[in-house]
Amino acid sequence: MPVLNLSNIGYRWPGPSPFALAVPELLVAEGETVLLLGESGSGKSTLLSLICGTILPDRGHVHIAGVDVTGLSGGARDKFRAEQIGVIFQQFNLLPFGSVTDNILLPLRFAPKRRSRIADPLAEATTLCISLGLPKDIIHAKASTLSVGQQQRVAVARALIGHPPLIVADEPTSALDATSQAAFLDLLFAQADAHQTALLMVSHDPRLGERFDRVIRMDDIAQIERAAV
Ligand SMILES: Nc1ncnc2c1ncn2[C@@H]1O[C@H](COP(=O)(O)OP(=O)(O)OP(=O)(O)O)[C@@H](O)[C@H]1O
């Protein structure tokens, strides 16, 4: 069973936005790493929001791990997302006044099954920090005191904790130089590999492609429409 299965999706942003997106099919297999390339404004973030269930398609279905998230109520969808998907946002979205552990453990609060997959969340958060190259004593630091590179690692630890079957990442390397980008991807792939986690990463940088099982382009999987205003 694919971990992600989009079929016949259609979505138009409400209000004055002229942008509409159609995705006939997108499948990601268990443990598969996929790079989704597309230029700015091609609808990559919109597609990720549809996958995460933060917006609902006007038509079509999004199945995550076999469950049709489009059929769930708002609250159930939020809980399901927390259980099944680790999300790494472009801006990391850490709670600035929370500690590193507060941030890493956050998804577990809303996801009892994900929580139950690990015996000791605090120990797991510490282990993740260390394996991601963060100093051990950083776990008590406030997120706002971290460097960008450290924030990025915390965002990865937060996505990985409790081994969700799918990690979705929106341009997580865009703020990094080439060396840091490569190191960041090494860490992300090693962690995903260890737990058969599927990874769907969005970027506009085709050079990242060689590291992934599969590279797809927005142009190949989606039709977009920008009506005249
Ligand atoms: N919150 C929103 N409300 C209304 N329209 C939106 C919203 N977010 C995006 N759009 C519309 O969707 C289009 C595609 O935006 P989207 O962010 O999905 O593209 P992208 O490929 O992720 O771009 P980028 O690489 O610059 O992040 C935008 O040009 C805009 O018209």
UniProtKB/TrEMBL annotation:
Coiled-coil boundaries: none
Residue ranges of domain ABC transporter in the record: 4-229
Record Gene3D superfamilies: P-loop containing nucleotide triphosphate hydrolases (3.40.50.300)
Keywords in alphabetical order: ATP-binding, Nucleotide-binding, Transport
Molecular function as annotated in GO: ATP binding; ATP hydrolysis activity; transmembrane transporter activity
GO CC terms of this entry: plasma membrane
SMART domains, A to Z: AAA (SM00382)
Database matches in PROSITE patterns: ABC_TRANSPORTER_1, ABC_TRANSPORTER_2, SIGMA54_INTERACT_1
One Pfam family it belongs to: ABC_tran
Transport found in the keyword field: yes
CDD domains (alphabetical): ABC_MJ0796_LolCDE_FtsE
Record's protein name: Putative ABC transporter, ATP binding protein
Native species: Phaeobacter porticola
Organism taxonomic ancestry: Bacteria, Pseudomonadati, Pseudomonadota, Alphaproteobacteria, Rhodobacterales
